[in-house]
Amino acid sequence: MSTPRGQENLTPEGREVVAKIDQVLESLEQLREERSSDNSAVAEQFKKFDERFEKIDERFEKVDKRFETMERHLGYLKGSHAASAMRRNAALVAHDMGYQLVTQMPREMVVSFSNMARAANKPLDDVRSFENADLVLLAKDDAGNPVYIAVEASFTIAMSDIKRAKRNAEYLEEFTGLPGKGAVAGVEIESGKLHNARVEGVHWYEIPVKYLEAD
Prior knowledge:
Blueprint: H1 12-88, H2 90-96, E1 100-104, H3 107-119, H4 124-131, E2 135-140, E3 146-153, E4 156-157, H5 159-176, E5 180-186, E6 188-189, H6 193-200, E7 202-206
């Protein structure tokens, strides 16, 4: 067996030490390669985890959007029931305000009033909103004097409902020459908004839940 180059002057014991050192170095190199392979495997596994979490996040986003859509549709449904309840019980709103109901104004008549608003160059969005008023009533007081009542109905009354009712009442008064009163009708009203309604001169009518059955 030949002596490795560079070790000719070493004693047998020295060459044995060098051989052991070489073995250790080889083991360390093998270990480094194994660790490198393990790290690559771990990195690949984390990458797969990230991809899975991204897919889960996408699914949660889709679920959130579905819930948002369901909540929005539920809001439409609840608002529709509130408006229907008021059409069936319009006399109660007028009575609660101290008036006697004469008739509910047909949509065609409301549209004719809106045409006057268009001719007067009122904001187009306001005119369209007025055309879609939930309810317009013709009522009379104890002396028989006529008055128009603009009602906005929603399950939960918000400031936007109050402002629409006030504006619609103002349009009615301006384009008919008769007094116009605003009212909001709902099962509940947002916190603090009852005070706002009173400040705006808009009447609040609380719809009994029992009136919300489907038509």
